[in-house]
Amino acid sequence: MRKSFLALAAGLLLAGSVDAASAADKLKVGFIYLGPIGDLGWTYQHDLARQALVKELGDKIETTYLENVPEGPDAERSIEQLVRAGNKLIFTTSFGYMDPTLKVAKKYPNVHFEHATGYKRNPNMSTYSARWYQGRYIQGLIAAKMSKSGVLGYIGSFPIPEVVSGINATMLAAQTINPNIKVKIIWANTWFDPGKEADAAKALIDQGADVIMQHTDSPAAMQIASERGKLAFGQDSEMIKFGPKTQLTSILDTWGPYYIERVKAELAGTWKSEDSWGGLDSHMFAMAPYTNMPDEVKKMAEDAQAAITAGKLHPFKCPIVGQDGKPVECKGGDHLDDGQILGMNFYVKGIDDKLPGK
Amino acid sequence: MELVEAIILSVLAASTPLLIAATGELVTERSGVLNLGVEGMMIVGAACGFAGAWLTGSIFIGALFGIVAGTMMSLIFALMALGLAVNQVATGLALTILGVGLSGLIGAGFVGERITPAVHLFIPGLTDIPLVGRVLFGEDGFVYVSIALVLGVWWFLYRTRAGLILRACGDNHVSAHALGYPVLRIRTFAVMFGGACAGLAGAYLPLAYTPFFIPGMTAGRGWIALALVVFSSWRPGRLVVGAYLFGAVTILQLHAQGWGVGIPSQFMSALPYLATIIVLVLLSRARSGGSTAPAALGTVFVPDR
Question: Which residues from chain A sit within 8 angstroms of residue B7, using beta carbons?
Answer without folding.
Answer: 203, 206
